[in-house]
Design goal:
It contains one helix and 29 strands. It is mainly beta.
């Protein structure tokens, strides 16, 4: 996603939370999700993805030209890395040492030390690296380049590019299965591509029937399912072995990120219309359990398994300027100092 190009649509929802009629045991023992806190970050500029480090109680938020790092226990900003071109995503190694940012405007993967938030290296990638993920078997970082339609693979030991993989279209968000396979949505072709991390080759291209412009992607590693969020108010549930679309539960409008709760088997979609969709993935019918009212523009998210909380980012907006022939759908202005994290939890 281009961090400056966030489309917002005004949708007014009645009530704070809508429930499905039937709720399985996995959820009935729990209180419903709701917005439990707001953490104001302030500053100016757009935003893109969030990444939660459950073990370290940290939340990494890309905010235009800087990375904001928050303590998830207090909600306070504990540090930042400034001077970037235009950040999209953050990937973390499993050892708790290093982080990797995709800087779309600089066409680079930026390496930083998580202990002191110092920038360590900048590695040339393709054009406009966007989604980014760490692959644990090969210990590589994969940056997916939205304008050059390829993936840059970086060896984390040498911090060198070891492969550039051509893709059939514009890649969006990736997901790794933890066993040496990488997946990525192809937004302009309505597809998912599967890649082998060892050979660094594409091994399958699967059509996503009923899924338009797939963006966010997350994986149930144990159940071998992928959850892709799409335009047209759909989430595509995909068998990660065969590529078959198993279901397309309804979600909110304008989604851009997905989340997965492995313990409770819940899939999440954060939607720009001001909702968070919660889907029960414990069985084969994939019912929507809740539609949680959040805030307009909160279309990217991170799930924190340590706290069972969802973090989303948005801001307050002014009125949109008048439409013109050159700009028929003008975006509303972001009000300075209003950038915030919404915290969704059960209490």
């Amino acid at each position: 996603m281009n961090w400056k190009s966030v489309s917002y649509k005004s949708v007014v929802l009645s009530g704070s939370i809508l429930f499905a009629a039937a709720m399985p045991t996995v959820v009935t023992a729990q209180a419903p999700y709701k917005v439990v806190d707001h953490w104001t970050i302030g500053g100016e500029g757009g935003w893109d993805y969030l990444t939660a480090d459950a073990k370290a109680h940290r939340l990494y938020v890309t905010h235009g030209t800087r990375l904001e790092v928050l303590d998830t226990e207090s909600g306070k900003v504990v540090g930042s890395i400034a001077g970037m071109g235009g950040l999209h995503g953050v990937a973390l190694d499993p050892d708790g040492k290093y982080g990797y940012m995709s800087d779309g405007r600089a066409n680079a993967v930026v390496v930083f030390d998580r202990s002191n938030l110092q920038k360590l290296d900048s590695i040339a990638a393709g054009t406009n690296p966007d989604g980014i993920a760490f692959e644990p078997v090969t210990k590589t970082v994969w940056a997916f380049n939205g304008r050059s339609n390829n993936a840059t693979v970086v060896d984390t030991a040498s911090r060198k590019v070891v492969a550039t993989i051509a893709l059939p279209g514009k890649p969006e968000f990736p997901a790794a299965d933890g066993k040496g396979t990488m997946f990525v949505n192809i937004e302009d072709k309505n597809e998912i591509v599967r890649m082998d991390a060892a050979t660094k080759k594409v091994t399958a291209t699967w059509p996503l029937s009923g899924c338009d412009s797939p963006s966010g992607l997350v994986m149930d590693e144990a159940g071998r399912r992928l959850f892709a969020v799409c335009d047209g108010n759909k989430m595509a549930v995909v068998d990660a072995n065969s590529g078959k679309v198993l279901a397309t539960p309804a979600i909110g409008e304008g989604p851009d990120a997905a989340g997965w709760d492995a313990k409770r088997k819940l899939a999440f979609s954060s939607n720009g219309d001001g909702t968070l969709t919660v889907v029960d993935a414990s069985g084969t019918s994939y019912p929507v359990l809740q539609t949680v009212k959040t805030q307009r523009g909160a279309r990217t998210m991170a799930y924190d398994s340590a706290t069972d909380r969802v973090y989303l980012v948005t801001a307050q907006f002014g009125p949109a300027p008048a439409a013109t022939a050159a700009m028929p759908h003008p975006r509303p202005a972001i009000l300075p100092g209003s950038f915030m994290v919404l915290v969704v939890g059960r209490k």
